[in-house]
Write a structure and sequence with these properties.
Shape: globular
Number of strands: 8
Helix content: over 70%
Number of helices: 15
Number of domains: 1
Structural class: mainly alpha
Strand content: 5-15%
Low-confidence stretches: 274-281, 436-442
Distance between the termini: 44 Å
Radius of gyration: 23 Å
Strand order of the largest sheet: 1-2
Oligomer: single chain
Mean pLDDT: 84
Length: 442
């Protein structure tokens, strides 16, 4: 394996591991804020304990998310210095704003919330957890605007062999970046919703703290369904943007090899370049792909064979990841409806509770498959139509990456095991009756 492939593998491993923690941070911060607000409004002690319980799990998850995010950004200098040199004028300000504005906002106010629990008024700590949630999501916005620029570069000029910033306004209003934000961040909300549903289901099955976990369940059920539906809607808009700006990715997502009009959407299919037709052995809905891509049943979809061979994305991982992402999305909507219908007395439906507990990892898989579609589907470009991934790597040897890659995997495996154990331990232990502020008991 060459240095480009190894560097891609290392970045993918670091990014996918980091994104095990980001979605839960995005959603659980808001759910914790909602539970605390309900306590403030109703005076119900169950909501107070729920806020502390879910907030503790959020805090553990947040800590490792920060660590893995920092090491991920270091790779732009260690493994992708040519990329950093080429686009640093654009990419750098976005990451700097994320770090100085959003990260410090969330990290400061999470400390105020946790350590000020018994020292500050409930209104102040409630404001602090809301500011933490807002900060987390603003952080995601700047990161996704940076990624959106890589997917669809705007507001730049090529000068002195570099892409230089010409219009900051165009960069921050890039429709591709905002659609990524509106599709990716709600996926984090669904991750958190099903996380709360799954753990609540476990405690309800054990008949522990039934009153508290019924209330946690009810809020999370409505939250999860709403955002699962939002994902479906924004996914449609995002698919339209992909079709308009990245036709190669669209063709790879659907294994369309030949340019055709009135292209069907296939529910069951086998992608094959060797067949005369785009899709073989398929259950098809005529014209649906054309409609989903361009809102026109007779629209033409450009096939992969009409793109240069060295500019086609890898088809199999893009194709299957897209289908698995969509399948998981529909399953989550169905489960969300089920949970909402049974939200008043979920403890009377043990079958549903067992399924929800077993399904709490589905949103994580959906997020990972979505990122595979986004990033693998953009290849061979690191900045679409501007810079190929093979041109972006640092002038280092494959041997160096072969040493650092397993080191990353080992360190991440240890950190992940510790973090997942802590989350699992405190999740199964349940909420404390009364816990001193700022203290996590083991």
């Amino acid at each position: 394996m060459d240095v480009v492939w190894l560097s891609r593998l290392q970045f993918a491993a670091a990014a996918m591991f980091h994104f095990l923690f980001v979605p839960l941070t995005l959603g659980l911060s808001f759910l914790t804020a909602i539970y605390q607000t309900l306590w403030l409004k109703t005076g119900d002690e169950d909501y107070k304990r729920a806020a502390r319980f879910w907030g503790k799990l959020f805090l553990i998850n947040f800590g490792l998310g920060v660590v893995t995010g920092i090491t991920l950004e270091f790779q732009f200098g260690t493994n992708w210095s040519a990329y950093s040199q080429y686009v640093g004028d654009i990419f750098g300000p976005l990451l700097a704003i994320e770090a100085t504005l959003a990260f410090f906002l969330e990290s400061t106010f999470i400390a105020v919330w946790w350590f000020g629990w018994k020292k500050l008024s409930p209104k102040v700590t409630t404001a602090a957890i809301w500011l933490t949630a807002v900060g987390s999501n603003i952080s995601a916005l700047w990161i996704l605007l940076a990624n959106g620029w890589m997917q669809h570069p705007v507001g730049y000029v090529l000068r002195n062999g570099r892409a230089e910033l010409a219009s900051f306004w165009k960069v921050v209003t890039n429709p591709f970046g905002w659609l990524e934000f509106l599709h990716t961040v709600p996926s984090g909300y669904v991750v958190a919703g099903f996380f709360v549903l799954g753990i609540s289901a476990c405690h309800l099955l054990r008949k522990r703290d039934i009153s508290l976990f019924k209330k946690s369940f009810k809020v999370a059920a409505i939250w999860s369904l709403v955002w699962a539906l939002v994902i479906a809607v924004t996914g449609d808009f995002h698919a339209y943007e992909v079709a308009k700006n990245q036709p190669e990715k669209l063709a790879a997502m659907e294994a369309v090899w030949k340019t055709e009009k009135h292209v069907p959407f296939s529910l069951i299919l086998v992608p094959s370049e060797s067949k005369e037709k785009n899709i073989v052995d398929a259950l098809q809905i005529p014209g649906l792909l054309s409609f989903l891509a361009y809102h026109d049943f007779n629209a033409e979809i450009k096939g992969l064979k009409d793109f240069p061979k060295d500019e086609r994305p890898p088809v199999a991982p893009t194709f299957w990841s897209f289908r698995l992402m969509v399948l998981i999305g529909f399953l989550l909507i169905i489960l969300g409806i089920w949970a909402v219908v049974r939200r008043e007395e979920p403890e009377k439906h043990p079958g549903m509770l067992r399924i929800l507990f077993a399904s709490m990892f589905l949103p994580y898989l959906g997020c990972q498959f979505g990122w595979i579609v986004a990033e693998v589907g953009r290849q061979p470009w690191i900045v679409y139509k501007l810079m190929k991934t093979s041109q972006a790597v640092s002038p280092i040897s494959a041997t160096q990456v072969m040493i650092s890659l397993p080191a990353f995997i080992v360190v991440y495996a240890v950190l992940g095991a510790i973090c997942f154990w802590l989350i699992g331990y405190h999740a199964m232990k349940g909420p404390e009756k009364e816990e001193p502020a700022g203290e996590i008991t083991y």
